[in-house]
Amino acid sequence: MSEREVLELLRENARYSTADIARMTDLEESEVEATIEELEAAGVVRGYQAVVDWDKLEDERVRAEVELNVTLDRETGYDDIAERLARFPQVKALRLISGDYDFDMEVEGDSIREVSQFISEKVAPVPEITQTVTHYVMTSYKENGIELGDGEGDDRLSFSP
Amino acid sequence: MTFELSDRVQAVPPSGIRRFFEIAEERDEVISLGVGEPDFATPWAARDAAITSLEQGKTSYTANRGKRELRESIADYVADRFELGYDPDEEIIVTAGASEAVDLAFRAFVDPGDTVAIAQPSYISYEPGVIFAGGEVLPVPTTKDDEFRLTVEGLEQAGAADADVLVLCYPNNPTGAIMPAEDLEPIADFAREHDLMVFSDEIYAELTYDGEHTSIASFEGMRERTIVFNGFSKAHAMTGLRLGYALGPADAIGAMNKIHQYTMLSAPTTAQYAALEALDSCANDVQEMVDQYDRRRQFVLSRFREIGMDVFEAKGAFYCFPEVPDGFTAEEFAEAVLREQGVAVVPGDVFGDVGEGHLRVSYATGLGDLRQALDRIEAFVDEHV
């Protein structure tokens, strides 16, 4: 149970200190440290990243969601194709999904040209890939559970009964 | 001409937190732990139901007692959560916030000269409510040594045996105290023995972090002498929608409805649609908020202990009630920490004399602000104590 609680808190804010997490969960700080170490060692926690609102930066990143359809043969399975694609640093997320297409791939680059070139030169030629449909991200409103844009702040009264 | 205020209005002093509010207004960057309302928005499904009701033009009065469908839903909810059985036709009234329900009860059952015993520290509106109704307040102090729970000894010492009404609020605003079933049972015996009506404000019932909430109305022989108040403001984060309700025997609710129908007519219709959806589909949202409050509660309690301020282990609502360090009154500490560090807390004596020496600290605020506010309080204590 404490593992789950610690994970939830890390997902909420990976920068919570172990002392803060200990205070919130009523665990000893050493227990929190040990739990996080175990979760990292077991590969449950794979890393820590910032949630960025690229629209706030001048040199914003170009991102695309790419639908991929594949055909499998006796020698090649989904995992083989995924392994090959996941190695590209431009690929930020790759998921096998159910529905109209097989893979959902998130790609990031400095320009539309760079992203387009990557898809046409590196992804489309993979023999098992039969179709790519690229959707460029225009505006992002929520990332990793965090709403982007300017909130209106706390307009509650400073004191209320 | 000048307006001559009624004796009853003159008898109620201005709110003890008004001056603090003015100080807070002058300052930038105040982190407020003085708020008695959730920092979460109403769950989306409930907001959506309210919007849809408006789109459909459902903007007329409802039945005085509230939409029947909502009363049925409330009956199912309190039966399921708190083992309370009430008839939606005659024993439930939907009000504009639980505050209206409390006011209706005082006006319906308190005559001039009647005595209303109030377990203190307590929510600041009970005492004025009694005075507006012409009654007299009998404070029944609770103490930190008893974990701010009401005891029969406390009732006897205060002379509550001769009172007409006993007001309870558990989980408690401002202390965060709860009354488990084993503590409530002797209070129920006392109420029956001395023929007291009980007004039980259970608005924070869902925000109980240690065990399950028990309603005093669920004890044998208590249903017929108890009015239970509850509502959607706290657990469902709907303060601004103003929707509460009262549960009680048919005659009692009928009497409250008599006043309600001539004053409020009916609770806000849009809010009633939101409340229906809240009961129907927002249990998970409530649980998520409760989990968040619980984490913040543990954080705040732990930080006060680190700072060296004694704090009672609050087990309900979203307040904790630390003691101010020696050398300060509650008001002095609250004012100084607001002026010097920009942290707003409420002095405990606002909730009755017995609250002197304490602060009400609300943790209905995001953890980032809580952390910063507690760091500032620590800096203040390091400098002055």
From TrEMBL, chain A:
Lineage of producing organism: Archaea, Methanobacteriati, Methanobacteriota, Stenosarchaea group, Halobacteria
Entries under SMART domains matching the protein: HTH_ASNC (SM00344)
PROSITE patterns: HTH_ASNC_2
Superkingdom in the source lineage: Archaea
Source organism of the structure: Natrinema ejinorense
Entry's Gene Ontology cellular component terms: cytosol
All copies of domain HTH asnC-type, residue ranges: 1-79
Gene Ontology biological process terms from the UniProt entry: response to amino acid
One matching Pfam family: AsnC_trans_reg
Molecular function terms from GO: sequence-specific DNA binding
Protein known as: AsnC family transcriptional regulator
Keywords: DNA-binding, Transcription, Transcription regulation
From TrEMBL, chain B:
Keyword Transferase: yes
PROSITE patterns: AA_TRANSFER_CLASS_1
Enzyme nomenclature, EC number: 2.6.1.-
Key words, A-Z: Aminotransferase, Pyridoxal phosphate, Transferase
Cofactor: pyridoxal 5'-phosphate
Record-stated family: Belongs to the class-I pyridoxal-phosphate-dependent aminotransferase family.
Name this polypeptide is given: Aminotransferase
